[in-house]
DNA sequence: TTCGGAAAAA
DNA sequence: TTTTTCCGAA
């Protein structure tokens, strides 16, 4: 397969695989985004890859629970999100409150089984051969 | 609200 | 190296 054949890069990256240590914030964001029950808290909205944090305090609370950081808040969570700008994982959708957008031209990663991706917009990307979803992660740019 | 420097933490 | 914490500036 040629890297140029895909717009996204999405792969299953086991928690135990080398290189994946603790849950990363954007993995977590992606996780919430793919679950129906959190649509009132955070959801895809607008352009492809764009999402809105409808309830900043709740997202921060959930993130705090996951990372065992009881004092997490949106101010701090959003700082972590801002660090993603230079890393080209995310960028801000200016003018839209609490709205960010994933830069799919960069990577992809994922910590979750492909079966859980059915509801995500990534699934709308050009078909990718199933062999692509190996138990490793990929970085295409 | 959003940004990004600085420093500490993990 | 990523995230947390703190915070002044825009």
UniProtKB/TrEMBL annotation:
It comes from the Eukaryota. Residues 23-103 form the ETS domain. GO terms for biological process: cell differentiation. It is found in: Nucleus. GO terms for cellular component: nucleus. One of its GO terms (molecular function) is DNA-binding transcription factor activity, RNA polymerase II-specific. Keywords: DNA-binding, Nucleus, Transcription, Transcription regulation. It holds the Pfam family Ets. Its main location: nucleus. Belongs to the ETS family. This is ETS domain-containing protein. It comes from Oreochromis aureus (Israeli tilapia).
